[in-house]
Amino acid sequence: MIIWLASYPKSGNTWLRSLLSGYFFSKDGSFNFDLLNNIDQYPSSSYFEKYKDLFTKPESTSKYWLKEQARINEDKKLRFFKTHNAMCKIDNNSFTNEQNTLGAIYIVRDPRNILSSLAHHFQINNKDAYEFMKDQKRSLVEKKEDRFLGFNALFSWSLHQKSWSECKKFPVLTIKYEDLEAKTFQTFEIIYEFIKKITKLNKKFDKEKAKKVIHACKFDKLQQLEKINGFNESMIGKKKERIKFFNLGIKNNYKELLDDTLINQMNTLYSEELQKFNYE
Question: What domains can be seen in the chain, in order of their start residue?
Fold first, then answer.
């Protein structure tokens, strides 16, 4: 059965994935990027290449979302999957259901800090990043030759967070990126206890291993790993160069990076969500 690590892009999903990879898939709490292979991304093109469909539309693969999850679950093993997909239906095809999912951990981040990260990641300006976040039909699309094989339905940031944080089909733990940043150990323990509960895992939280993982996955260490070894999930720029994935970390402060006009626009647009998640 699947536990989803879900988030809107640039909200800390890769960091959480790193922590869980180091904890569950290393012997001693060490970390390297190869461990991320234990937590795959879904839906991605590798799951749909075998089908003979022409996949002429970006959303065409949605018809196989549940079928592929059922295939993944045939061996009845527990698996974590990273996803940026909203908890939604496309062409009446549900992204997932109770038969294939044990639960989800949803990471929410202050949208004003997401914006600058999005702008850097996709090499667009702040205004375009804001339009990206407002777009209710936004998706991430991967095309190979003439076939649309990779499709993540994002929708707007508001709709995305609501689709997961208010999901009632299965247990969802919503955590704030800011809590993971400021109270890493405590938040990681909350995440572990959630996993333990829904999987009926009979193992206590290994505090010493967790501390080692947290140390190994500090932002500056991940940044250094990327500098030395590269990171194959980073975007490729217009000049075919790799865009730095681990960019600002704690230095990403919207108050210093965004102009007042844009901050005021976002404060107005996201007033309900900022209050919901206690963002100042």
Answer: 2-276 (3.40.50.300)
C-alpha Rg value of the chain to the nearest Å: 19
φ/ψ (deg, to 5) at 125: -85, 170
> Are 257 and 263 a contacting pair, CB within 8 Å?
no
Strands (E), the chain: 2-7, 40-41, 79-83, 89-90, 93-94, 101-108, 139-144, 147-153, 172-176
Separation of alpha carbons 41 and 6, rounded Å: 10
The answer to whether the bond into 171 is cis (omega within 30° of 0) is no
What Cα–Cα distance (Å) separates residue 47 from each residue in 29, 36, 64?
A: 30, 17, 9
**pLDDT, tens digit (0-9, with 9 covering 90-100), for 202-219:** 999 999 999 999 999 988
Give the pTM.
Answer: 0.92
